[in-house]
Amino acid sequence: MTIAINQLSKEFDGFQALKKINLQVREGEFIAILGPSGCGKTTLLRLLAGFLSPSEGEIVIGNNVVGNPQQTLPPEHRNIGMVFQSFALWPHLNVQEHIRFPLMHHRFVRKEIKKNQHERINEVLKMVDLEAFAERMPNELSGGQKQRVALARAIAPQPELLLMDEPLSNLDAELRMEMRSEIQALHQLTKATIVYVTHDQGEALAMADRIVVMNQGEIEQIGTPSDIYTKPVSPFVARFVGKANLVEGVWHEKHFVPSLASDIRWPDTGVVSAMKEQNIYPVRPEQFRLSKENESGSGLPGLITSVQFQGKEIYYTLEVADQTWAVHTDVSQQFSLGEAVYIHLSVPRNTVTKNYHHQAI
Amino acid sequence: MKNMSKEIMPIRALSSLFKVKFIKIIALLAIIIFFLVPVLRLVLLSFQVDSQLSLQNYADILQDSKTWSVLTDTILIVIGSTAISVILGVLLAWLVAYTDIRAKKWMQVFIILPFVIPSYISTLAWTQFLGANGLYGKLVSVLPFSLEPINLYSMGGIIFVLGFSHYPLVYLLSVSVFRKVPREVEQAARVSGASGWRTFLKVTVPLALPGIASGGFLAFLANLDNFGIPAFLGIPAQIDVLSTYIYQQVVGFGPSAFQRAATLSVLLGIIALCGTLVQWLLLKKSKRLETTVEDKKPRVQLGKAKNLIEFLLWSFFLLTSLVPFISMLMTSLLAAYGLDFTWENISLKNYQFVLENSPKAKRAIGNSLQLALVTTIIGVVIGTAFAYYRVRKPNRWSQFSEMSISLPYALPGTVMALAMIFAWMEPVPGWNPGIYGSVMILFIAYVTRFLILQVRGSITAIMQVDVSMEEAAMVSGSNGWSKWRKILIPLLLPSVLSGAFLVFLTALTELTVSSLLWSSNSETIGVVIFSFEQSGYTTYSTAFSSLIIAFILCGFITLYVLQYFWNRKVANVK
Ligand SMILES: Nc1ncnc2c1ncn2[C@@H]1O[C@H](COP(=O)(O)OP(=O)(O)O)[C@@H](O)[C@H]1O
Ligand SMILES: [Mg+2]
Question: What's the rounded Cα separation, in Å, for the pair B349 and B335?
Answer without folding.
Answer: 7
